[in-house]
Amino acid sequence: MALTKADLRNAVMTRMGVLAAGETANAADAALVDQAIEDVHESLIQKGLADWVTSAIPNVMKRPLIALVKYEVADDFSIPEARIGRWAVEARGMFGDIRALMSETQKGVPTKAEYF
Fold first, then answer.
1. Who has the most CB within 10 Å: 11, 52, 75, 103?
2. Alpha carbon of 81 to those of 73, 75, 78: distances in Å?
3. In this structure, how many other beta carbons lie within 10 angstroms of the beta carbon of residue 33?
4. 3 - beta bridge partners?
5. pTM for the full model?
6. Could you tell me if 34 and 71 are in contact, meaning their C-beta atoms sit under 8 angstroms apart?
7. How far is Cα 26 from Cα 62, in angstroms, rounded to an integer?
8. Helices 27-46 and 62-73, interaxial angle, to 10°?
9. With b meaning 16 or more CB within 10 Å and e meaning fewer, what string describes 13-24?
10. CA–CA dist 113, 2 (Å, integer)
């Protein structure tokens, strides 16, 4: 089963420590993280690393997306600089993970030929 944007948002905020498990984010915080999810998703599409929509996020993308989104919003939640630095390193490593995951999901899918 795929994740929704709300599922990912709650996972990001819980991992950041700004939302306790089972709590609901306030509207302003939810909107902030939702926009970051959309921004990260658009960036991945531009890099050819996403072929899914944010209403149906593949479960295998949960870990890398949490890392990327929490880094994107860290300043907005006044996360200490030392932790942001660790998250930056983690986020940079996620692009390789996403590439590997995307290539795994593409195995067996015929390559589309472009004729000029």
1. 11
2. 13, 9, 9
3. 28
4. 57
5. 0.85
6. no
7. 22
8. 120
9. bbebebbeeeee
10. 29
- SS3 for the chain is CCECHHHHHHHHHHHHCCCCCCCCCCHHHHHHHHHHHHHHHHHHHHCCCCCCCCCCECHHHHHHHHHHHHHHHCHHHCCCHHHHHHHHHHHHHHHHHHHHHHHHHHCCCCCCCCCC
What is the reported pLDDT for 26? 95
Residue, of 92 and 113, whose pLDDT is higher: 92
The pLDDT tens digits of the residues spanning 9-63 come to: 999 999 999 999 889 999 999 999 999 999 999 999 999 999 999 999 999 999 9
| In the chain, domain spans | 5-105
Lookup: tokens for 56: 């149906």
